[in-house]
Amino acid sequence: MSAFKTKLSDSSLFRTLYIIDLFFCMVSFLQIPAYIFLVFLFCWGLRLVYLNQKRYNTFFKLRFGIWVGAFLAFSLISVLINFSFTILFSVLMFLHVMICFFLFYGMHTEPDLDFKEELFIIGRVIIVCTTLFNLIGFFCLLFGISFNWNFYDLHWVYFPIYENRFTGLFVNPNLLGFVSVVTIVLCHMFSKNSLRGEVKARGFGRVFLYSCMIVNLFALILCDSNASFVLALGYAVVYLAYIFFDTREGLTPSKVFIKIITLLLVSAVFVGSSMIFRTVFKAGFAAVTAKTNALVDVLFDEEEIIHDITDGDSSPEEKKGAVTFDHENTNIDSGRFKLWRESFDLFKISPIIGIANGNIVFYSEEYLNGTLQYSYHNNDLHNGYLTIIVSTGVLGALLFGTFGFRFAKHAAQHLFLRRKTVRTEIYPCLFAFLGAYLVYALFEKALLYDISFMVMWFWLMMGYTSCYVAKYEHLIETQYLFHQKRIRRTML
């Protein structure tokens, strides 16, 4: 019994189970039981928030905790002032934000935490499961195995194609795209010598990791998720920028200018070639899929095909509809512009203190055009920044932005002002993912107000980054900028 109580007090175990459960919430055939289990995990998390504050004094040891506390206090005031029948949802989101701040970002306040071991345990599950699920999806896609089921519009399964895009075993192509990018980043992290030297990486050799990266890259392309593709490109560009400026020598203005121009040119070529490869690969794989499906039809439905040809009917490919892996919705914004226009009208209702997150859909239907609805696709602004501004107003957004700026400042210091390069560590990977995610949050339900794998993975990466900052900050030193002119940390 005492061992069980010890496990209930283990924040690292909670984070591991919470993230893995949220991962399975995205898997079609496991979504419902995963959501049921999530309720118990959420309650466990709230207990740990209280327990950690009691034993670790979390809030007062939290990096930039003054801004976190001010944001939480202001968010609570916004919820109480905007009292409505949706207040329960607003309170739920407030509790969710506390878990984000105190259990995920605040993991650096936990003594004796081996965050690299925790990352390896979580990452190992995600790499294996995502790669396996995508391989199963590819196999079924090539051999024409599909399954569609809809339960009164409450739960649906479209396998392996959803709206002409590869979705595999996941609920939505956009979710598949995000978790594929996460898996690629994890494979990159696991290939780092520093991590491999500190954890038991048996069974995760570099050949295996690179194979997983290729599989998930193909899945990312075929799901045709524009936001996830931007996330992947953003990660590569930010990491490339780090490589360009990872120097311990003073830089002259001319060298800085040359590096910036070179970086822009290299990034433009990389992004352009990636877009071309994406288009060509989708077209090529669509042709391969059509051929393999036709071959399966010939082997198993030979008499029916001969009968259709005799009667002059269309070919099996034309009957079934060829998969092209492109959006059926030709709008490049996929309806987001309409949601964003609605968000500005919501902001005007209460620009200073916001309307509280739980009132976003309610106020849209009650006072505006009703663009936002209580449905899967239209219950969020699909922009993490707009969601925070509308929910907490200008003051809340400023407090959250100040916290984010302070964190980014210290994270960048640790990346560039250490006495030795950190290129062999996983820290540049964490920094690059967070930087790319800030762009990704412009297009998806991300950043804060959503109990999902996408949001919690961001805060998990924030937590690991904060552990690095807290552990190695004493190694940061004053550097020379432009030869004899010093740049001090206070200026950054």
Describe this structure in words.
The protein has 492 residues and is mainly alpha-helical. It is built from 19 helices and 6 strands. It has helices at 2-8, 11-24, 31-56, 58-61, 65-81, 87-104, 115-142, 173-190, 193-198, 206-223, 226-245, 253-300, 302-310, 316-320, 336-349, 360-367, 384-416, 427-440, 453-472; strands at residues 147-151, 155-159, 161-162, 165-166, 479-481, 485-487. The strands form 3 sheets. It has a two-stranded antiparallel ribbon with strand order 1-2. Strands 3-4 form a two-stranded antiparallel sheet. A two-stranded antiparallel sheet has the order 5-6. Helix 3 (31-56) packs across helix 6 (87-104), helix 8 (173-190) runs antiparallel to helix 10 and helix 17 runs parallel beside helix 19. The radius of gyration is 24 Å and the shape is globular.
SSE order and pairing:
Layout: H1 2-8, H2 11-24, H3 31-56, H4 58-61, H5 65-81, H6 87-104, H7 115-142, E1 147-151, E2 155-159, E3 161-162, E4 165-166, H8 173-190, H9 193-198, H10 206-223, H11 226-245, H12 253-300, H13 302-310, H14 316-320, H15 336-349, H16 360-367, H17 384-416, H18 427-440, H19 453-472, E5 479-481, E6 485-487
Antiparallel strand pairs: 1-2, 3-4, 5-6
Which features does this protein show?
mainly alpha; 4% strand; globular
What's the β-strand tally? 6
What is the helix content? 55-70%
Choose one word for the global shape.
globular
What's the N-to-C terminus distance? Answer: 50 Å
Strand coverage percent: under 5%
- Secondary-structure-based class equals mainly alpha
What does the largest sheet look like?
2 strands, antiparallel
Q: Which ranges are low-confidence, i.e. pLDDT below 50, for 5 or more consecutive residues?
A: 309-320, 480-492
Q: Compute the number of helices.
A: 19
Instruction: Kindly provide the radius of gyration, computed on alpha-carbon positions and rounded to a whole number of angstroms.
Output: 24 Å
- The pLDDT mean sits at 85
Give, in order, the helices and strands: HHHHHHHEEEEHHHHHHHHHHHHEE
The strand line-up of the biggest sheet is 1-2
